[in-house]
Amino acid sequence: MLDLGSGLGIDSIIAATRVGPTGQVTGLDLSKAEVAHANVRAERRGLKHLSFVTGDMEKMKFEDNTFDAVISNGAFCLAPSKQAAFGEIFRVLKPGARMAICTSTIKKALGGETKWPICMRMFVHKDAIKPICEEIGFTDVFIDDSNSLMSFDDEEDDNAEVDPHTGEKVPPTKDKDRAKSAVHVGSAEFKHLANLDMNDICARVVVYGRKPL
């Protein structure tokens, strides 16, 4: 299994507990510092079948037909060329193997006259993903948007306010709810976006697909 944009290795470590005694998990990330840290974490846990390497998901150094599965949780949205990144996933997957890519997308075109954060400008349109993947050669392509909100309430939020009389957590106010889905909260550079709701503009999706036999 290959984990793209593996960061500090959380998802890769979880995957390493699922691949079985003969399985192997590789994490790929652009950050040398995070790769080094993730390798230390894997070593401390005795996960000899887990390793992390530095690399670009658009230009991977793995051989063709190497992996049974490719996953990613978040970092894929920052790949400058989604066509190139999905193409590389297709190349390194074995025939019959599958991908599950969680990524942030846009649901509507961003206004050209508006200054947007660079991360949002790199998001792919949700409706463009399936055609891209099918053109590359993936089959059974499915875009799961059932859990697409960009923000959500954390029932276990340790920072939530507590009623001093009852000891119970106080429900967030409307202002706090709005802040959770605002665009770059507290950023003077993007204060012109303060009244926008990320959930109206963007969606988090999971892209499933399979490389034909």
Task: Explain what the structure shows.
The protein has 213 residues and is an alpha/beta fold. The protein has one domain (2-150, 199-210): Vaccinia Virus protein VP39 (Rossmann fold), CATH 3.40.50. 27% of the residues lie in helices and 24% in strands. It contains 7 helices and 8 strands. It has helices at 10-16, 32-44, 82-92, 118-121, 126-136, 174-180, 198-201; strands spanning 2-4, 25-29, 50-54, 67-73, 93-106, 124-125, 139-144, 202-210. Strands 1, 2, 3, 4, 5, 6, 7 and 8 form an 8-stranded mixed beta sheet that branches. The chain is globular.
Describe what is shown at a glance.
The protein contains seven helices and eight strands. By secondary structure, it is α/β, with parallel strands linked by helices. The two termini are 18 Å apart.
Are there runs of 5+ residues with pLDDT below 50, and where?
162-167, 173-178
Q: Give me the number of helical elements.
A: 7
Q: Compute the separation of the termini in Å.
A: 18 Å
The radius of gyration computed from the alpha-carbon positions, rounded to a whole number of angstroms, is 20 Å
User: Secondary-structure element sequence?
Assistant: EHEHEEHEHEHEHHE
The CATH topology comes to Rossmann fold
CATH superfamily: Vaccinia Virus protein VP39
CATH class descriptor: Alpha Beta
Shape: globular
Class by helix and strand content?
alpha/beta
Major β-sheet annotation: 8 strands, mixed
How many β-strand stretches? 8
CATH architecture: 3-Layer(aba) Sandwich
Helix content: 25-40%
Strand content: 15-25%
The tally of structural domains comes to 1
Mean pLDDT: 88
